[in-house]
Structure formats: C-alpha cells, structure tokens
Amino acid sequence: xxxxxxxxxxxxxxxxxxxxxxxxxxxxxxxxxxxxxxxxxxxxxxxxxxxxxxxxxxxxxxxxxxxxxxxxxxxxxxxxxxxxxxxxxxxxxxxxxxxxxxxxxxxxxxxxxxxxxxxxxxxxxxxxxxxxxxxxxxxxxxxxxxxxxxxxxxxxxxxxxxxxxxxxxxxxxxxxxxxxxxxxxxxxxxxxxxxxxxxxxxxxxxxxxxxxxxxxxxxxxxxxxxxxxxxxxxxxxxxxxxxxxxxxxxxxxxxxxxxxxxxxxxxxxxxxxxxxxxxxxxxxxxxxxxxxxxxxxxxxxxxxxxxxxxxxxxxxxxxxxxxxxxxxxxxxxxxxxxxxxxxxx
Length: 345
What we know:
This protein has 345 residues and is of the alpha+beta class. The chain is 14% helix and 32% strand. Helix 1 packs parallel to helix 4. The model is unreliable at 321-345 (pLDDT under 50).
C-alpha cells in the first residue's frame, strides 16, 4: 500500500540522486533537475537527501493515500489541500489512509518535489530509481506517472522529531524569479571562442526557448562568436550537468539531468553546481545572464550549502519537547549555523 495517482499532472517522474557509474557505457545519469529542493524535501521527512521523490513539472499530480505516511513539498510553490485542509510548502505533514492530496499549478518556478518518508517501492536499475524517459528505464516502467498508477512505500513513518512542526524557514528557499544571474566557470574549450564571443556570452541576457526540457535548455540571444578557424565542432568528449555548449549557430545550450554522455560542440562555460537548481526552475520565456566565477569560489559555495543542509537536518531531528508553540528552523544564506526559535501562540 502507498499512494494511488488520481492525476499525473503535466510531467511527473520518480527521481533520486542519479544513475552514476555507467556513463562510460553511454547510460544517462538522470536524477533530479533541482537537487537542492529535492534534498530539502527529503530532509523534512527524515530521508537521506538523495532518496527518490516525485519530480513534478509546473502542474503536480493529485493522489490518494492508501497508507499512513509523512510527506513534504518543496520547490516551485504550489497550493494544495490534504483531506480538504490547506497545506503549506516546505513543511512535513502526516497523511492518513483515505486522505486525498490535491495540488494546483506552480505560480512561479518549474519543478516541485514531493518526498515520502521511507521512499518509494520501485525497482532500482543500475543502482538508481531515477526515471530516464527517452531510455524508458527506472522509475515506474521508465515513464511518467499517469492516472491509475499505484506506488508503494518502502518504510513509511507516522512519527518524526518535531512533527508536526518540521518546517523550513523561507530564507532557505530560492526566489524562483523569472530572471536569474547564473554563475559559471570557464569551459574546457573556451579558447575556441573569440574575445568578443566570450564578452557577448557574459554581457547578454538570454531567453529560455520552448526547447527546454530535462535533457537541456536551448537559449536565444546575441550570437556568440567562435575563434577564427573554429566552427563550434570538436572531437566528442564527456558532457556533465551544467556544461554550456555553443554549436556553430552561436546560441548556447545548457546540458541538464538527462543529458547525453558525450558531445561534439565546444563548451564555453559550466554552470556551478549551486546555481544549477536555479536553472532547473526556469520556464520557457524566462531569462538568464551569466557571471564569471572561479573554481575556488564555486567550491566554497558547495561547502557552505553542504554545511547548511547538515545543520538543518541536525536541528530538525533533535528531540524537542513541544507544547502548543511552534518551532521554526531559521537559517540565512551564507550563515554557518541555524537555530530553533519559539514562536508565541
């Protein structure tokens, strides 16, 4: 027993941290597009951060619980009700067998994550439960969820420390603005572009086109000029999440979770990992500007984010005696500590 899908939404798949260790055989990594909010949702329900979740694009699914379990919603903000009562984003709830979760379309952003305590009972394929749609592997039969599907829980829970007050302060949540400045480090083929081309890349506002999906985001804007005698083609080499390819037409493409494992276009830059969730939340028509960052800065941002998530989990999981007062986790970006603040009735 677990959940019955009443409506699959626009595009809902099962995703975890990804299918690593097989790229040399041409197997796509997949995994969540927005790893940060995926992690937050799992921490709220007491899971390991990379545990499988439902990733919903713009319009999330509606579902019926056939077994008690704790769940949480993070990512692109949606409105919803559980058994007819309003619920909040970024907060853990206990659902009972017979409850129905109804959700509306995201008002901002693109992807919402729904985590369940104990994870979802679907087969692991090459060490991952992630759905790769084009390869039809992982998740539930390698496809998006649809009406009438049933998903079991692996190890459901009805109690957690600080439940029902396990919540995340808004300062930890991204803004989901339709205009984002995305930090990049220089790509391995940056010498394949002229100085003017690099300047164009860093000083142009690019628009996310309709050709944006889990594989990659095609952008539209000022043409990026290649260096003399360069046409954008290279001997194929490895493609990582966040790589920015620029083919001969001069328009950049950001490679995402379902990217191919190798590619033959020159890469001018690479989105730093802490900014990839911001890219993942952009919709067609939204805009991006790129800002240069060095590797040491990028590594420091990763360390800060890792420490913040560890602190959040430690605080949420500590045993706290609760009365009728609510406890909220406060953590501002850039801070290395978090605390519990009691909010008066």
